[in-house]
Amino acid sequence: MEYSKFNDIIKSSKNILILSHVNPDGDTLGSMCGLYCAILENFKKKCDMAAMSKIPDIYMHMPNIDKVKHIDEIDKSREYDLVINVDIAAIDRACDGKILFDKAKSTINIDHHKTNNAYGNLNFINPDASSTGEVLFGIFNELNWKVNLDCANCLYIAILTDTGSFRFDNTKPKTFESAAKLVEIGVNPSDIYKKVYESDSKTLVMFQAYCISKAKFLNNDKIAYTVVYKKDMEKFSAGDECMEGLTEKLRAIVSTRIAFVAKEMKSGGTKFSMRSKFTDVAQICELFGGGGHKFAAGCTIKAPVEDAVKMVLKEIESREI
Ligand code: 5GP
Ligand code: MN
Question: pTM of this prediction?
Answer without folding.
Answer: 0.87
